[in-house]
Design a protein that fits this description.
Structural class: mainly alpha
Subcellular location: Membrane
Protein name: Tetraspanin
Function: Regulates the proliferation and migration of oligodendrocytes, a process essential for normal myelination and repair.
Number of helices: 7
Keywords: Glycoprotein, Membrane, Transmembrane, Transmembrane helix
Mean pLDDT: 78
Strand content: under 5%
Family: Belongs to the tetraspanin (TM4SF) family.
């Protein structure tokens, strides 16, 4: 009975190590996605510390490759030292992922205030040229999120660009898709996106943080199962005198 239980635990543990390798790739992808998206929205969210969870999750993903290798070797060879090392590393990574979850919630709560304090300044710096970073950021966001202005397209009336151009129009990036010959004129509001960008930018950034939080929570749960199985193998190996190492046959052969 004890031998059967140990074998089952080892099977699950080997399977979990394979999952760790897959998880490593997924975590690195999530972290990279956060970096890429932040680059698109950095003008609306200036707190670079927001990237800390993404940095940690990429580091955890890289470490999971090593953990999976250690776990597989330790399980196949049934090394007590290797399994103990495996459990300790998993415990440290688990604690790190808990930190990621906490930081994710902290920075997610700050998103709205950060965007609210910076978006007005970004729109005020708009000059309509592609060489200007704030202008590119605004045009990108308005096209991607299908929005116009901060709260709606009428916000453009208060910008320096609108007063300098003096043609009673908003940027072409405010034009809805499918509208022929849209010039951004405020005399044809039906051609423009009706929704403002601030709420949509906040929603997008909060979604990104939730990706990080859910990824960390999911793989933290898997790691708990991995630690449990490794502990079962370690404990039963020490208590069961009839237990033989799988590698003993090859050792004495």
């Amino acid at each position: 009975m004890g031998q059967c239980g140990i074998t089952s635990s080892k099977t699950v543990l080997v399977f979990l190590n394979l999952i760790f390798w897959a998880a490593a790739g997924i975590l690195c992808y999530v972290g990279a996605y956060v970096f890429i998206t932040y680059d698109d929205y950095e003008h609306f969210f200036e707190d670079v510390y927001t990237l800390i969870p993404a940095v940690i999750i990429i580091a955890v993903g890289t470490l999971l490759f090593i953990i999976g290798l250690i776990g597989c070797c330790a399980t196949i060879r049934e090394s007590r030292c290797g399994l103990a090392t495996f459990v300790i590393i998993l415990l440290l990574v688990f604690a790190t992922e808990v930190v990621v979850v906490v930081l994710g919630y902290v920075y997610r709560a700050k998103v709205e205030d950060e965007v609210d304090s910076s978006i007005q300044k970004v729109y005020e710096e708009y000059n309509g040229t592609n060489s200007d970073a704030p202008s590119r950021a605004i045009d990108y966001v308005q096209r991607q999120l299908h929005c116009c202005g901060i709260h709606n397209y009428s916000d453009w009336r208060n910008t320096r660009w609108f007063k300098e151009v003096r043609n009673n129009s908003v940027p072409i990036s405010c034009c809805r898709p499918g509208i022929v010959n849209c010039t951004g004129s405020l005399t044809r509001p039906g051609d423009l996106y009706p929704e403002g960008c601030e709420a949509l930018v906040v929603k997008k950034l909060k979604e990104i943080m939730m990706y990080v939080i859910w990824a960390a929570l999911t793989f933290a749960s898997i790691q708990m199962l991995g630690m449990l199985c490794a502990c079962v193998v370690l404990c039963r190996r020490g208590r069961d005198p009839a237990y033989e190492l799988l590698v003993s046959g090859s050792t004495y052969a």
